[in-house]
Amino acid sequence: MKYVVVLGDGMADEPLEVLGGKTPLAYAKTPAMDLLAKTGDIGMARTVPEGMSPGSDTANLSIMGYNPEIYYSGRSPLEALNIGVSMEEGDVAIRANLVTLSEKEENYEERHLLDHSADEISTEEASALLEAVKEGLENQEFQFYAGTSYRHCLIWKHGNVVPLTPPHDIREREIKNYLPDEELLLAMQKESYKILENHPINQKRREKGLNPANSLWFWGAGTKPSLSSFEGKFHKKGVMISAVDLLKGIAVGTGMKNISVEGANGGLHTNYEGKAQAALDALLKEGYDFAYIHVEAPDEMGHQGSVEKKIQAIEYLDERVIKLVKEGLEKSGEDYRLLILPDHPTPIKVKTHTANPVPYLLYDSRKTEETGNCYSEEAGAHFEPVKGHELLKILFEE
Fold first, then answer.
1. What is the DSSP string of 242-262?
2. Hey, what's the torsion of the CAs at 42, 48, 51, 57, to 10 degrees?
3. Residue-level pLDDT at 398
4. Residue 305, φ and ψ in degrees, nearest 5
5. What's the distance, CA 115 to chain centroid?
């Protein structure tokens, strides 16, 4: 028996008038999911425990069977695991986004946060910008580490876990009320703007009509994580397939194998087919029992507030990942169980995460009796949500 989770990050949403009262997931053309739903089980899951922040960190930990109320120590420490940062007791990891701030205002505090990802800046460009930041700001107390695209890491030696605002929560807002209270962090953010504003890479980006990555933005502070082995917990050998450092970091912390896919970038035009094939190869050729396929695109499109692109991301997930995984496993003759779901909603209306329950579809290749289900929020709405950290137990039940 093979087991697969396909995670459409932020795929859940709310009904929109422009879609005739449907959610993007209900509106999207998803023939592969609808076919699986005909004999599958539909339900709802509460992936974010009450009182916790609805991030991809808490939600994905939950879905992978690790109750965030027990295991969560902050987002950036999980990303630091994947980057290869060795944290000591007392160190604090902080996410350092390269963001786009408005440039017409005189004072830093009066600027607006226009884009939390600087047009999903390439890793190559971002690494060069981070080098400039390191030259200007790094010292024995603060060290920077390059990640993927706009996502980077700051280690504060013997630092403090301080409250910080995620940049994707405040797109288009004036930043004055969301800046760090910690003076050292605030000073570095301000100085990063001076370093990056006229960097040659940003000058070229403006010429191309792209948003400049003109400031750091700190958030997601936390301490060294302690996660138990996935194989020890579930007695399954697992692989993680994601372009996002957070998911890769969870895999490192739980002893799962990370599979890097060329062209996978966390954006709308990621290598969907490559992710599907990597999962099939791991399951059918390399002897793994479990594959977790994470696709970031629906979440990014939700943060951008683009209905059209979010629908497109969902349709790509259906056609270019789910369909291919289904066909590949069926061709192999292997029995399999497939769990499809978002980690959290990223509604178009608010352009950020919410903690509402999410729908899930559980398919077992051995079941043939049709239920007539269709995979959508509406299909699962009348079910009592299960706890997110119990989903893999349900998936692994025979």
1. -S-HHHHHHHHHHTPEE---T
2. -170
3. 63
4. 75, 25
5. 17
> Residue 311: phi, psi to the nearest 5?
-60, -45
User: Exposed e or buried b for every residue in 134-154, given b needs 16+ CB within 10 A?
Assistant: eeebeeeebbbbbbbbbbbbb
Residues making up the chain, counted from first to last = 398
Kind and range of the H or E run holding 27: helix 24-27
**CB–CB of 275/260 below 8 Å?**
no
How is residue 149 written in tokens? 């695209």
Residue pair 83/146 in contact (Cβ under 8 Å)? The answer is: yes
Among 337, 341, 384, 383, smallest CA distance to 364 is for 337
Amino acid code (one letter) for 353: H
pLDDT digits (tens, 9 = 90+) for 228-279: 999 999 999 999 999 999 999 999 999 999 999 999 999 999 999 999 999 9
Asked if 293 contacts 6 with a C-beta cutoff of 8 angstroms, the reply is: yes
Nearest to 325 by CA among 295, 360, 302, 296: 295
What is the reported pLDDT for 383? 80
CA atoms within 13 A on the CB side of 382: 2
122: buried, middle or exposed (CB in 10 Å: 19+, 13-18, 0-12)? middle
Place of tokens 């998936």: 395
The model's pLDDT over 266-325, given as tens digits with 9 standing for 90+, comes to 999 999 999 999 999 999 999 999 999 999 999 999 999 999 999 999 999 999 999 999
Contacts of 351 (CB under 8 A, 6+ apart): 168, 171, 302, 303, 304, 305
State the average pLDDT over residues 315-342: 98
Could you tell me the two tokens for 299? Answer: 């979440």
* Cα 198 to chain centroid, rounded: 30
The residues that bridge with 174 in the sheet, in sequence order, are 112
**77/154 Cα distance (integer angstroms):** 10
Q: Which residues, in sequence order, are bridge partners of residue 295?
A: 8
CB 217 within 8 A of CB 125: no
